[in-house]
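testing teh design pipeline on a random one, pls ignore if ur not involved
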């Protein structure tokens, strides 16, 4: 039996409209500007190569420029997915002349171009937001570089440190993800124009022409790969999730620390929300949004990877991306801006942090190291002696400030058969949080000198990152402005009577 072929002659089923075209139309807003730019570049290229008659080009450029002046053109699922819906709107305006838009270019090429044009702009904005967040973190770290507190692991006191050192630990991964997003922009700046269906088109011999008009840095070499590659999209959404995870970790810490039980930090009122029932509540709503958005972004990664698990050259793997990835970028942008606002306005409760230092045992590691250095014992033995002393003090509801050389000697006699005889002044220095922090002089430590180096490094890196994001954005916008100006110039030349005679429908030799 011979299978029927050829395009359908009956309209789509209502179920297909509801489950397919309507879904795709939800992503039309993200594709709209890019489709306009892709169409302008394609028509100008066809005109340059004498493939499209000038009157037809002028009509098409005019209707596309009109569409560009609107946020949308009434994308109706009844007319198909966004590309076909758009074509119907053009045909209604200028008639069959709109059909020239298909010359040498399938629907997927136009939408792939539009998608990349949209994503590269969105991604540049996220890069700039990430750079700003790193700058804010560095600024606040500088303000709290001498504010001592007991840093934590597993929500338990670990060692004395500074709030500034803690905050800087989030700036570095933010900058690293910002750089990865720059790499994603470079991937997005590869042009699939001229790829045709899978193996190129006979109507175009220089694929770089449209790429240059649209401000792309390069042309994706293999035309089949150009139509179907998705690895860069997975890298993009994965990086967005990574960027979010760093912010979520900070938000989770702050949510705990802002509780009455910890009282380490106060969030600015503008980033909280009142309970409608309990008048005493000031809920850390902004932090909940940061944490929740992170979960959504992780979902975007999972969803993207799931739809890519298919044979090659299938439409579904990118149809679903058209709505998902712009949404992920918007989530990441708003979240990163929100985190910068939270960090920029928070207040550390320094008196409470000092009390926690005085009431805990975060100095224990330094005391054990000093016992090792001063009393001729190995570290494991020193660890056991100090640990036993801590247990006794804790049982008596006392803290590290109550640790004495006599108590250490008492424990040492029980475990070693001899006292340590540690000098009281030496022990006092090992118990002093200021002195402890001052010993962290190696690269990346909390002491003043390495902190100064890190603050300068992060500030510089953030500035460089922001400048790179803005430079890429400026280049894109300049190319797009030039493209629109070229299209208008073609129309104006005809209106002014200076346009050349229509070249007819000839193609390149």
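output:
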């Amino acid at each position: 039996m011979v299978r029927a072929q050829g395009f359908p002659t009956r309209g789509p089923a209502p179920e297909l409209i509801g489950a397919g075209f309507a879904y795709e139309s939800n992503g039309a807003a993200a594709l709209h500007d890019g489709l306009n730019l892709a169409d302008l570049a394609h028509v100008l290229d066809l005109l340059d190569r004498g493939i499209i008659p000038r009157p037809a080009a002028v009509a098409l450029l005019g209707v596309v420029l009109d569409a560009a002046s609107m946020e949308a053109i009434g994308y109706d699922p009844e007319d198909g997915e966004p590309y076909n819906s758009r074509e119907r709107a053009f045909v209604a305006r200028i008639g069959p002349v709109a059909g020239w838009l298909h010359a040498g270019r399938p629907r997927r090429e136009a939408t792939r171009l539009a998608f990349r044009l949209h994503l590269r702009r969105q991604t540049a904005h996220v890069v700039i937001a990430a750079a700003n967040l790193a700058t804010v973190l560095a600024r606040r770290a500088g303000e709290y570089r001498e504010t001592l507190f007991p840093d934590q692991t597993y929500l338990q006191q670990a060692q004395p440190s500074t709030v500034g050192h803690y905050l800087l630990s989030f700036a570095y991964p933010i900058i690293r993800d910002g750089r990865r997003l720059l790499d994603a922009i470079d991937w997005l700046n590869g042009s699939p124009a001229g790829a045709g269906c899978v193996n190129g088109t006979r109507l175009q011999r220089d694929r770089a022409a449209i790429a240059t008009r649209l401000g792309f840095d390069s042309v994706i070499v293999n035309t089949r790969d150009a139509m179907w590659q998705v690895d860069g999209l997975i890298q993009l959404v994965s990086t967005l999730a990574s960027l979010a995870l760093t912010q979520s970790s900070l938000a989770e810490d702050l949510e705990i620390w802002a509780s009455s039980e910890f009282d380490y930090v106060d969030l600015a009122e503008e980033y909280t929300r009142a309970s409608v029932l309990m008048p005493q509540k000031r809920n850390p709503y902004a932090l909940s949004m940061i944490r929740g958005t992170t979960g959504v972004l992780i979902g975007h990664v999972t969803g993207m990877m799931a739809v890519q698990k298919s044979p090659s050259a299938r439409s579904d793997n990118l149809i679903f991306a058209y709505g998902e990835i712009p949404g992920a970028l918007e989530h990441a942008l708003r979240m990163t801006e929100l985190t910068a606002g939270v960090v920029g306005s928070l207040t550390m409760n320094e008196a409470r942090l000092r009390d926690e230092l005085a009431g805990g045992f975060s100095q224990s590691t330094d005391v054990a190291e000093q016992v090792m250095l001063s009393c001729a014992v190995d570290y494991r033995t020193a660890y056991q002696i100090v640990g036993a002393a801590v247990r006794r003090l804790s049982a008596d509801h006392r803290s590290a400030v109550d640790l004495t050389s006599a108590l250490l000697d008492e424990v040492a006699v029980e475990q070693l058969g001899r006292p340590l005889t540690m000098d009281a002044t030496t022990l006092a220095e090992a118990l002093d949080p200021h002195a402890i922090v001052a010993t962290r002089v190696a690269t990346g430590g909390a002491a003043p000198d390495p902190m100064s180096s890190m603050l300068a490094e992060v500030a510089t890196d953030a500035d460089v990152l922001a400048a790179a994001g803005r430079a890429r954005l400026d280049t894109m916008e300049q190319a797009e402005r030039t493209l629109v100006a070229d299209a208008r110039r073609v129309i104006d030349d005809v209106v002014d009577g200076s346009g050349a005679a229509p070249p007819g429908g000839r193609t390149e030799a």
